[in-house]
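Write out this protein's structure.
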Amino acid sequence: MLDQHCPFPKFMWGDMWDANVGRDVGFMSGFKPTGTHREKRLTAATVRTVTKTGLHADGNGLYLKVDSNGSKRWIQRVVINGKRRDIGLGSASLISLSEAREAALENRKSARAGEDPLAVKRLSQAVLTFKEAAEQVHGLNKPTWRNEKHGDQWINTLEKFAYPFIGTKRISTITSADVLSALSPIWNTHPETARRVKQRIGTVMKWAVAKGWRTDNPADAIGQALPKHDRSKVKHRTALPYDQVADAICKVRGSEAGLATKLAFEFLVLTATRSGETREAVWSEFDLDKKVWTIPASRMKAKKPHRVPLTDRCMAILKEAKPLKQDNSDLVFPGTRAGKPLSDMTLSKLMKELEIPAVPHGFRSSFRDWAGEQTHHPREVIEFALAHVIRDKAEAAYARSDLFEKRRALMADWSEYII
């Protein structure tokens, strides 16, 4: 059977027959299509100057559409799964003729392979930018942040160091080179921050992999491209030798700091808790009759509730703190702003002003050193007192108790030592 446009049978054409537009797209040896059937009929000059309203064919189903208002855009007509579809390829002012031809050819190849170029296009448009993806990941993890400050730091570091380089890029298109360009300026000057940014970029990329937008994590592929950091010079949080803790407490008691600040500091040292755990303590967490403070999982680093035995001195501090209670707040150690706890900076500043060479968190180390060197309390009791996670899985499996009564004896000894 002969086609009306071609003197040769279709079976002789094979792949040169274009089912998308219903006519030939190539030529056999010795035969060249002529007239309206030739490809690449448009020129760059024509695209710039043509004003006639309507469709202007180029080939491969590619058309330049000129609207009545003079705007021009590219359209491709292609057969997808037996149905003719129109695919918009973009404005002619943004997409050149050669770029439009390249896109049209790729779409045609995809359609012939049984794929749906329109679906691929919709999927690519659905892929978020890195900034949009990071904001979604931040929102998903919001309930798990230890506190609001930690969550803010997570997104703020990306805003400052990652967004200028990859924020507007589709997350599916970001390469290892892009991540490297974001990290290189701060890798040696701010190593700790750079490591955190790298980890946070990696978290966003893992989410993109789970969404099906990527198959790899470019943040994992740049380890060899960045110089190793010298961790030997890293300064850990300063801790006070345990035999100097009692003097530090005396200094704080005799200082001109606010009562809430002085009580919070001493309570933190006595309980060997983290700064945030003490500063954000609320009265509803305390069972004063049983002398127990139960910190909920939401405020613990390990995300498990932690019971703290209260010594006699702890009970006395709580009694002193009672008059500080504000009408609109349940905080035990309220800050100067109504409804807000003391800030970590308040305690740190107090240490500096009193020339105590330590940070609030360091007193946990003071307690650990004292307990290990000066007492016979078992190691697991000490670790439970610090709310440390048991790393050994076999040991953790048998840790059915929090050893509370043994910890009560340990904390009583610590209180007696420093008071």
